[in-house]
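Example (one chain per record):
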Amino acid sequence: MSFDLKIQAQTNHIQLIDLDNGTLIEIHCKGALMNRWIVNNDSQPLELILGNEGQANFELNGFRSGKMSPFSCRIDAGKYEWAEQIYQFKKFYLGEHAMHGLVYDADFSIRSTELHAHFAQVTVSFDYQGTDPGFPFPFEIMVQWTLYPDNLIGLKTTIINHSNKQIPLMDGWHPYFTLGGQVNDYTLEFQSNGKLAMREDLIPTGEILKDTKFNTQHLIGDTHLDDCFLLDPIQNKIILSYLEMSIIVQPKHNYPYLQIYTPDDRKSIAIENLSGAPNCFNNKMGLQQLEPHGVIYFETSYQFKAASPL
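Predicted structure:
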C-alpha cells in the first residue's frame, strides 16, 4: 500500500492520494470541505462530488460540500433563546431564516498532516471568535480528513468551547454526491425511525411521521426530497446506488439525523449527516450543550464500491 499527500500552497488545497488505485480527494482550507473525490471505475476516472465552482460562491452553489456549524439547515427567523437571553444571527438568510451556520466559508489553516503506508491524513482548524451577534461564543473547530484503502474516507470534526459559558451546538455536512447520469435513476436505502414533519418553509413542526419507503432499496425517480429523517441507531448505514456502483455513508458518532436533498437539476443528491434536527436551537431535537472549555466530536465515513454491497 502506498499513499501520497500534496499541498498546493497558492490555493491552500490539499490532495490525499491512494497511489495503488488512483483514488484522490481534494480538501480546501476555505470551508474545510472536500471539493473533489475521484475514483477509478473500470479504469475510467469517476468524479463523485459536485463541488463548489469558486471560492466565493458557497451560497450561490447551494453550500456544496459545506461544513455546517454551530448549526445546520435553518434557524426559525434566525432567532433563539439561550440562558434567558434572545440571540439573533446575522450572517446569511434564505428568506426569513438563518441558514447553514457560520464557518462554511471560513479560512481554516493546516494543523497537521500524516502520511502512512495505510492512510494519508490532514487536519485543518479554525478559531471562531464569537463575531456574529447570534453566536457570541468563541470556539475552535478541527476537521480531520483521512483517506484509507478501498476508496474509504474518514471524517472527524472536533469542537472545543473556548467560552466560559455553556453553549448550544449542532454540527453537519452538506456534500452533493454524484454517480453520473440523473438521480432519478439512483436507488437509496437506509433504516429510518421516522421523518420529521415540516412546515412549508421547512421548519420542523415537532411531529414524527412514519416513513419506511427507503428501508429497502428504493428508486428515487422524480421525487423531490428536502427531508430530515431519524436514523436507526444500530442500522444507520446509507447506501446510494446506480449501475452497480454505490456510495456508502456510515455515521460513526453523534450523527443520528439524516437530511436528504435533491437539487432541481437532478445531477446530484445531498446526503447530509446532522447531529440534530433543523431549528434545534429552538425545538431542542438533538441539540448538544457543550460545557465551558468542553470538547465534543462528530464522525462519519464515505466509501465507494464498484458493485452493490448488498
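Caption: The first strand starts at residue 3 and ends at 8.
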